[in-house]
Every structure is written in C-alpha cells, then in structure tokens.
C-alpha cells in the first residue's frame, strides 16, 4: 500500500467526483450503459482480479468508508495507480449513496463488451461449456445463473437481448462476484444466438420440463450450450422443436424448478460428464 | 360457488375482522406463532389443498379484492363454509394491508405442527427422502429448499431450531406454495435432529464442500436425509465428522454454491438414484 497519498478525502456528498455513486439512489447508473457499481469486498476483489486478468473491465474509481481503508490495503495494492480512491466518513457516504447498504466499499467499473458475439465465441476453448440465458428478467435469477456458471467452471454465459443486466447491483451481489469473473456476451434474439452457437460447433441443449431426453441420460459432446428460458413461459416452442431438449426429472404434477436452480443442476451434470469438475 | 351470501363486505380498513392482515404491515403476525399469511392464488390453492388433504393446516379467513372474487370461485368451492370470506375495494385493502403488494388474494392460515419430531418421523413411508435444514436464516433460501423438496417429491423437510420460519410470507412466496405442500417439522438442535433421524433408520448425509465422497458416486439407501447447513459457516465440524459427507463436485477455487441450489442438485441426484422421479 502506497500510504496516505493514495486517498482523496471527500467531505461533500454532492462532490461531483463521486456523482456516479450518488446516482445509485435513482438507479440511474446501475444497469445502464456499460458502467456499473461494485459493492463490498468480495465484489471489488472480483473486479480487481478481472481487470488484472484481461481487458473485460476497467476499474474507474473506488469510494471507501474511512474505517474500511485499513482492511482494504492488500486489495488496493493491485489497483492501478491511475484509479482514484476516495474516502469519506459515514455521514457523507450515507448522504451520498442514500442509504446505509453500501458495506463501506464501493467502486465504479466499466464493462468492455466483446466486439461481437462471433468474436466472443472465437476465443472459447475447443472443449467448452456455456449457459445460454433467454428472457431472464429477474436479477436474482441472472445472478444465480452466473454464480452457478462460476462454481461449475463454465466458460461463459451468453444472453439473448431480452435478459436483464448481469451488472445490475443486485445481480452482481447475488452472483457473489461471478458476474465479473465469468465472461459473458449479448447475442441478439434467441434464434440468432442458437444459429451462431450451432455454427461454432456447439450442441445447443434446450432445458425444458417437456424435454424429450432426461438429464440423467445426457452424454455431452465437446462443446455444449445449456439453453435456459424464463420461468413463466419457458423457451419458445419453435426454438425447442429444432433442438435436443432435456428435462430434469421431477415428481409428477409439481411446479417447475426455479431457472437458476435448474441451471445449477444441468451445469453440475454436464461438468461432471465432461470431466471438468 | 354458493353465491353472494358467502361474501362479507369490509368498508373500514380498521375493521377488527381483518386485523391479522393489517398486522402484516408491522410483520407482527408473519412468522410468529403458528398463524401465517398466504398471498396470491397459487399459495391460497396450496393452502386449500393442504387443508383438504390432512390436518396440517387450518384456513381461518380469506380477504379478497373485489375484482378478484369472480376468478376465485372455483377455489372457494373447496373452502369450508365456516371460513369467512371478506371482500374489500382497492382503497380499503391498500389502507388495511399497507401497500399494494397483496395480489388481491390473502388468507390467514394456521399451522398445526406435528405432536413431536418422533411422531413426524413415525408417519413417513419405509422408503423416504428428507431435507434436513440447519441454521438457514434467509427466507429466500428456506423458500428455495421447500420448492426443491416439492419438485423432487421429498417426503418432508426437517428444520433445526435455528432455521427461520418457512411460513414467513416471503418464504411461502419463494417456495411457490411448497411450504404448504411439503410436510415439515422442527427438530431441536442439529445433534438432536441427527440422533432422531439415525434412530429412525435414516442415513444422514452431510452436504459439504469438504465432503469425503462425491455426489456423483452417491448410492442412497432406503431412507436418506440430506443435511444442508448455512452458506457462511456450513455444518458444524463435530457433526460432519460423525456423518457420511458428500461434496457436490465443482471447479477448484471457486466460491461455494447457494444452499438452496445445493439442495436442488443433491435432491435431484438422490431422487433419480432412488427411483423416485
């Protein structure tokens, strides 16, 4: 840690240098454009790691509660010198952010999306496992899908255009930082996504309670994309009829699984069968 | 449906006949004692079914938004005549309940707990699958565990004394009504729970990232209880060392699974291997 010279004191909640954090109140920033808010030590760690590892993220600024400075030193050692680190007292931070939910550690990150979906796919290894998320509009669910993708070592998550933003604050939090660790890419409509995946050698597997094969009997090939749809509607019938479909065996007559849980079960099975875990 | 005579009009939000619903504002009722609030059509349906099926629940009263009456008729046909059905306009209902989140369908239910944990266990079939939840303090997670228990046809959920209430409003909602469909019982401390389960012929399986066997290799016997602990701490070491422990295979170095997701994966595998789904 390079001493006190690193820290920039903020005494005015309206200081324009921390305006992005103030905008959290209105959710102006969160989930809009490519900038996002990272909260808490685990998520900031993920952002610092992601920035060091590749060029997917830029860490733009950090805002710390003054009593969190000491415990954050080892993490700041890996933050580039050009990234400002602002420090404020509790009153200023609460007034700026608008509530006391910030855990004392905040950062603004910027996502640098892949140049295109094809560019994203071209960088994947020969043996690859993806989750393809379609129409997931709930931040808990998208966060849960990323968390599972991280736990089971998936190579990425691809999102159709109607999925919500995995970099929305709650989604990042629920993902326990995996939204910053697991590479992801937007991929247009479901049909466009399926077409590109297929052209890139992926077996696209539709997860559906009406799937024609059981997950237990699934024997994955070298490149697998697990397609998971919304909980209410599921995947569109015209998409499913062109795909291999798998059902996660369940007791008859019961309600369906939560989509994030379904992704976890299918990822675990695929990762085991592919010898990845 | 027995016509308009069934419905009792409420015009005053402070009417004492709907006081339990008004208490939702302060969470006085929700999760205290054995009474609970059921919200929405799916959950009321589960409560009506549960009441008809066995004596685990009593449906005490229903409160409907006036424009939901027509669509609820088929459900009310199965409600005992002694259960009052109150009807109110939107202004009265919003003022009584305190917010506009009630979906227009509310009920007060009462849980009739088993006489004892042993009494609960004695009623289970010879081949049985349980989830044993320990220290789950998050309502999303307890709701998710019940949802998974329902989907995979578990015979019940047993809860140590430190688990939160599965009949808390949010837990019921997240469970999609499974908290009312899947039998459950409190079981004292974890050690007491494990002892009773073992005495009743259950193989108690501790789910842990440090488990000695893999879930893939798990060959369940006739009676299985899957023990799931808190996400932060996990299961206590002195409990784990006396149990068969299973780890859900995952990529090295990643964070752990969410506990509800872990329960879903383990339940699916157990239910498949036990020939239950």
TrEMBL record, chains A, B:
UniProt cross-references to InterPro entries, sorted A to Z: Alpha/beta_knot_MTases (IPR029028), Ribosomal_eL30-like_sf (IPR029064), rRNA_Methyltransferase (IPR051259), SpoU_MeTrfase (IPR001537), tRNA_m1G_MTases_N (IPR029026)
GO biological process: methylation
Gene Ontology terms for molecular function: methyltransferase activity
SUPFAM superfamilies xref list: alpha/beta knot, L30e-like
Sorted UniProt keywords: Methyltransferase, Transferase
Domain tRNA/rRNA methyltransferase SpoU type: 129-268
Pfam families: SpoU_methylase
Record's protein name: RNA methyltransferase
């Amino acid at each position: 840690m390079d001493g006190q010279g690193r820290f920039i004191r903020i005494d005015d909640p309206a200081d324009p240098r921390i305006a992005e954090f103030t905008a959290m109140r209105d959710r102006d920033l969160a989930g809009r454009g490519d900038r996002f808010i990272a909260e808490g030590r685990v998520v900031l760690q993920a952002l610092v790691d992601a920035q060091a590892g590749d060029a997917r993220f830029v860490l733009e600024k950090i805002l710390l509660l003054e009593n969190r400075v000491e415990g954050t030193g080892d993490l700041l050692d890996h933050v580039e010198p050009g990234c400002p680190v602002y420090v404020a007292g509790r009153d200023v931070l609460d007034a700026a952010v608008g509530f006391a939910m910030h855990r004392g550690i905040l950062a603004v990150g910027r996502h640098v999306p892949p140049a295109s979906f094809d560019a994203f796919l071209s960088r994947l290894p020969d043996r690859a496992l993806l989750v393809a998320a379609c129409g997931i509009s709930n931040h808990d669910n998208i966060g849960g899908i990323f968390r599972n993708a991280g736990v089971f070592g998936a190579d990425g998550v691809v999102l159709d255009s109607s999925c919500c933003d995995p970099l929305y604050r709650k989604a990042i939090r629920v993902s326990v930082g995996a939204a910053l660790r697991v590479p992801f890419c937007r991929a247009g409509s479901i049909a466009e996504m399926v077409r590109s995946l297929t052209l890139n050698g992926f077996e696209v597997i539709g997860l559906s309670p009406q799937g024609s094969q059981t997950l237990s009997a699934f024997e994955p090939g070298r490149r697998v994309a697990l397609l998971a749809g919304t909980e209410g509607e599921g995947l569109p019938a015209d998409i499913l009829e062109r795909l291999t479909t798998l059902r996660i065996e369940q007791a008859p007559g019961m309600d369906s699984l939560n989509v994030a849980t379904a992704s976890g079960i299918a990822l675990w099975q695929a990762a085991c069968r592919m010898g990845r875990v």
